[in-house]
């Protein structure tokens, strides 16, 4: 049986105007480090103004970048602990 020993909370913030949405994703790790990533979305001038759609796109892009930063961090920690260069971690 698995037990939860740690939990992560990801914070998302958005800034928007009529044409653009910017997102910032932040996770604070148990070791005290923070990993932050950004995403954006642009509305085409002929598209309807749907702020939620811009948030979803910008948020997804920020979360994707956050995932890649976490994979890179983990990969670097594996290399440091093992003293060798390991194979890259791919999604």
From TrEMBL:
Which InterPro entries does this entry report, sorted A to Z? Rv2632c-like, Rv2632c-like_sf
User: Superkingdom of the source?
Assistant: Bacteria
Pfam annotation, one family: Rv2632c-like
**Location of region: Disordered:** 32-52
Listed Gene3D superfamilies: Rv1738
* Protein name per UniProt: DUF1876 domain-containing protein
Name its species. Streptomyces coeruleofuscus
């Amino acid at each position: 049986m698995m037990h939860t020993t740690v939990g992560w909370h990801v914070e998302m913030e958005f800034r928007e105007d009529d044409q653009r949405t910017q997102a910032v994703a932040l996770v604070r790790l148990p070791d005290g480090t923070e990993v932050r990533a950004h995403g954006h979305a642009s509305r085409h001038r002929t598209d309807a103004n749907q702020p939620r759609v811009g948030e979803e796109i910008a948020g997804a892009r920020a979360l994707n970048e956050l995932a890649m930063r976490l994979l890179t961090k983990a990969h670097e920690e594996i290399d440091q602990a093992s003293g060798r260069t390991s194979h890259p971690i791919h999604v």
